């Protein structure tokens, strides 16, 4: 197994999607396609057995919050989330390049889904937000917090998959793989 970060420029037009889940899933698909193309070796036609792309976003009252652009943006997001419920969506896209057989006209198998989790934040004090932002932890996290770190102290409750909020819905991923195997789409 090798982790290869995608270089996909996450600039999809959010307003062209009917939900934050669709947006996250499409971004995950583009990330997976980019990595799949980049890792294909034409010289010996080798490719990965599976490429997994994932993208997590936070949605608050119809507004999609991604990673903050700077510390002010991070603080602004946290003030918005304070004392409120929001939803976290992680899109996951699975590409199976090895299922491709150009001679038989088979294209790679692609399977994309998203998971949704509701998160309730407690009331956050200005000093706590400022200290958290200074820690640097929120700077690479959707919605400017990491539930698996210090940001978890802001969370009053979670309804749904905890790992989805971390950034990868592991249980749902396993269920989706099982479905593909049961349909005969994968031979493992």
UniProtKB/TrEMBL annotation:
HAMAP family (UniProt xref): Maf
Keywords: Hydrolase
Any GO MF annotation of the entry: nucleoside triphosphate diphosphatase activity
SUPFAM superfamilies, A to Z: ITPase-like
Pfam families assigned: Maf
Name assigned to this protein: Maf-like protein
Database matches in InterPro entries: ITPase-like_fam (IPR029001), Maf-like (IPR003697)
Listed cofactors: a divalent metal cation
Record PANTHER family: BIFUNCTIONAL DTTP/UTP PYROPHOSPHATASE/METHYLTRANSFERASE PROTEIN-RELATED, BIFUNCTIONAL DTTP_UTP PYROPHOSPHATASE_METHYLTRANSFERASE PROTEIN-RELATED
Keyword Hydrolase attributed: yes
Keyword Coiled coil attached: no
